[in-house]
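hiii, so i know i said id send this last week but things got crazy w the move. better late than never?? heres the sequnce for the chain we talked about at the cafe, plus the structure i predicted for it. fair warning i was half asleep when i ran it
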Amino acid sequence: MAEYPTNLIEFEDWFRTNEQCRDFLEKVRWPDGFRCPRCEHPSGWKTGRSGLWECADCSHQTTVTAGTILAGTRKPLRLWFLAMWLIVSEKNGISAKGLQRQLGLTRYETVWIWLHKLRRAMVRPGRDLLSRTVEIDETYVGGKAEGKRGRGADKKSIVAIAAEEDGNGIGRIRLRRVNDVSRDSLLPFIEGAVEPKAVIHTDGWKAYRPLSNLGYRHQITVISRREELASELLPRVHRVASLLKRWLLGTHPQYYPQVGS
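okay and structure toks below
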C-alpha cells in the first residue's frame, strides 16, 4: 500500500471523515504508537471521540495536532487535508483565490493564512546541504518591463538557484531571493546551500570566480562561447527557473501578468 494517495479518487477514499484524517496523522506522528510529548512515556489512551490522549504515566493530555499548524483549528481536518492536497498536486501552483474557490470558504483572509502556514511548513528545518555536482545560476522574475534582460535588468526580483544533479534528472534544489548578482550576494547563498568539496557548475559570471578558494571544485561553462543554448548547458537550473515562473503565474496571476526572463 502506498504511503500517500496518488490521485483524487484515492484521496477521497482515504480521507472521507475527520476520524480518518486524525488516524492518519497519528500514524505519521507516532508510527510506533502513542508517546507522551512531556515525559516520553510510550503508553496512553484516548479519552473520547475528540482525539484527546492522556499519558498513562504523567496524566498529561494532548492531541495529535498539538504543536503543529493544525493546533486549535476550528475547521474540519478533512478541509485542511483537502487544502494540502490541492497545494501539492497543482503543477502550476494555486493562488489563495483559487484555493478559496475550491474549498468553498467565504473569508479570503482565512485561506490566505492557511496557504502561508502550509508553505512555511513545507520547508524542512536543518536540511542537509546539497552535494556531489550542483548547477548554480540566477533567474529574474517579475512583470513585463522595458530595458535590459538578464543580469543588470531593472525592476525585477533576482532568485539564486542551486540544483543537484541526479543522473539526467534533478535532485534536491535550493532557491533564495538575493539583492543582486554580486559575489557578496551569491557566495553566501552557495555556502549555505552546498557542502564543501562539491562540484559546482556555473557559467562564466565573474561573481563565481572565488568558488575554488572556498573549497569547491568549480566547473565553468562560458555560455557566450558555445553554440548550445544556456538551457542545454545548465539544464537543471533552467528547468527549475521555468517551473518557478510557472508557479508564480499560477499563484500570483494578479501580480505577474507576464513573467520576465
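btw The mean pLDDT is 87. thought thatd interest u
miss u guys!!
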